[in-house]
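INFO  loader      accepted 1 record
INFO  loader      residues=234
INFO  predictor   begin
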Amino acid sequence: MWLVVIMSVMLAKSVSAGWNNTIYYKVLVDSFKDSDGDGLGDLIGATKQLSYIRALGADAVILSPINAKSLDCDHPGTVGFTEIDQRYGNEDTVKKLIEKSRKLDLKVLVSVDVRSISTLSEWFNLSAARTLGYEDWVIWRDTPADPTIDGVEWVWNDIRNSYYASINNETQLNLCSDGVTEAFRRVQCIWLQRGFAGLVLSPDFAINSECGIKFVQKMATYALSCTRAANIKP
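INFO  predictor   done
INFO  writer      dumping tokens
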């Protein structure tokens, strides 16, 4: 089950008709515009193309995830949800992108994949070690469930002495966990405070759809709280 949720400053203001009619342009940062010739698209390249995107008639840009990812092909996935992947840019390049978008009256949203993390991530290691407050951040099982269900593979972890859920070699987060929800509340607020008009969450509820739906509902409420507390304006 796929559900795409856009949580933004505009949506927090009871969803105006203009926002409903917004024309979006999706930018896959990796392949969109390479500014330094390394073969990988980046934020500087995306910034240079904003005028072109606006000229096409777009009102808003949706960036693919730009948060930190593992460089180890054997341990793929997110290693940090608030850090900007240095392959794409840094805080300064994000700031310049937002500044230019505002001059063009172009909203910028960023995608965040809340489904999974890398086994190299701090969240995974803390959960594997049963660190207080992180015990249930990853989906763990004492015995593996049917590995064919929803494409989930159950992988043994020697530290935890348990199996964790993995899809495409990425560890599945437990969206039923209050700790995970609170962590993403903070993640969301950080991106909004950087000047993004909103976040696009695309959670694939492979294991627990009920918790996934509740998670998204809470994130929408938190987006409103964050924009109000930080006095963020569209």
